[in-house]
């Protein structure tokens, strides 16, 4: 009796345990010493600046690993990243850089230092740099402007302008300018709010289409690379087409004297045919019945059927085969001559 029949529950549990172990190994394949490899380091930043797990790690522009984790560590951000076959010195600097115009980030490492960086020691914030996020700044500007009371701001500037009424002309001009600016902002409050809101929506849309833009740029690079590779072939094709055009032009020019009389004669022939089109149509309409009768006369063997009217006297013709009037073929159904 097989083991499955003796202990089906035990076999099922062992199978589930093996499946769970395989799934765990697959999920952590990058951390395995043979399959994944690499060394994991930790760096502390003042802010994450949009960095996400899975973003690239680059040294001198070359991808050497990826970000494995971004988490909050007190008032700082803890970033872990894994690199393979890359020197990380004890004076290395790490910065969050912008990869694309749409705001995707990557981790840039500058491998400095005479000694090797200890993987268990985090890289301090003194050696890390976070970028300035323009998208977040625009979103923050929109939110701040929505909370701004432009009417009170205009009243405040008007009060400042009145307070500086007896000051020197330069000060009064500056105060009046501020008051005019506040009035303009007050009048354009709704328009500016819509503008900033539209800007925020555009940045969000572009951020959502980041992958499509990357694919488009990658395909464009591949197309340009293929065109560059085919440049010599395309150049040879264009040169060949130019030479062919030159040869054809020379051929036509060389044979103009011979072709001109032929074309003129052909033009005269077509003119004659056009003038006699009605006669040609009548001839073709009469030729049809003629050739039909000729085919009937020649279609019975190695001879042709014919009827000669008046050659034999009527007295010699069999009774019943003589035509009543005119010269008609005899009735061959009751016998006749060929």
TrEMBL record:
PANTHER family the record matches: INTERMEMBRANE PHOSPHOLIPID TRANSPORT SYSTEM BINDING PROTEIN MLAD-RELATED, MCE-FAMILY PROTEIN MCE3C
CC terms in the record's Gene Ontology section: extracellular region
InterPro entries in the cross-refs: Mce, Mce/MlaD, Mce_C, MlaD_Phospholipid_Transporter
One Pfam family linked to the record: MlaD
Residue span, Mce/MlaD domain: 38-111
Protein name as it appears in the record: ABC transporter substrate-binding protein
Domain Mammalian cell entry C-terminal: 120-301
Membrane-crossing residue ranges in chain numbering: none
């Amino acid at each position: 009796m097989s083991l499955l029949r003796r202990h089906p529950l035990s076999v099922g549990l062992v199978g589930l345990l093996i499946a769970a172990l395989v799934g765990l190994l697959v999920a952590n394949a990058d951390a395995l010493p043979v399959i994944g490899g690499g060394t994991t380091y930790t760096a502390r930043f003042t802010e994450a600046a949009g960095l996400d797990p899975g973003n690239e790690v680059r040294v001198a522009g070359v991808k050497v690993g990826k970000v494995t984790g971004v988490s909050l560590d007190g008032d700082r951000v803890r970033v872990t990243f894994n690199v393979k076959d890359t020197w990380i010195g004890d004076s290395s600097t790490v910065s969050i850089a912008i990869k694309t115009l749409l705001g995707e980030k990557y981790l840039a490492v500058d491998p400095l230092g005479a000694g090797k960086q200890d993987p268990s020691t985090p890289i301090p914030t003194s050696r890390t740099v976070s970028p300035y996020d323009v998208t977040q700044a625009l979103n923050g500007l929109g939110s701040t402007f929505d909370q701004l009371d432009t009417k009170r701001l205009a009243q405040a500037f008007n009060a400042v302008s009145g307070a500086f009424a007896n000051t020197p002309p330069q000060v009064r001009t500056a105060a009046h300018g501020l008051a005019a600016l506040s009035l303009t902002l007050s009048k354009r409050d709704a328009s500016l709010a819509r503008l900033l809101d539209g800007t925020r929506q555009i940045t969000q849309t572009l951020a959502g289409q980041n992958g499509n833009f990357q694919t488009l740029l990658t395909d464009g690079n591949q197309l340009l690379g293929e065109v560059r590779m085919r440049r010599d072939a395309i150049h040879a094709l264009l040169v060949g087409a130019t030479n062919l055009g030159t040869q054809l032009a020379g051929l036509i020019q060389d044979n103009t004297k011979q072709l001109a009389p032929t074309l003129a004669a052909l033009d005269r022939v077509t003119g004659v045919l056009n003038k006699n089109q009605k006669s040609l149509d009548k001839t073709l309409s009469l030729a049809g019945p003629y050739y039909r009768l000729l085919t009937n006369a020649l279609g019975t063997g190695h001879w042709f059927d014919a009827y000669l009217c008046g050659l034999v006297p009527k007295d010699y013709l069999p009774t019943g085969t003589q035509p009543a009037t005119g010269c008609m073929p005899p009735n061959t159904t009751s016998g006749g001559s060929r």
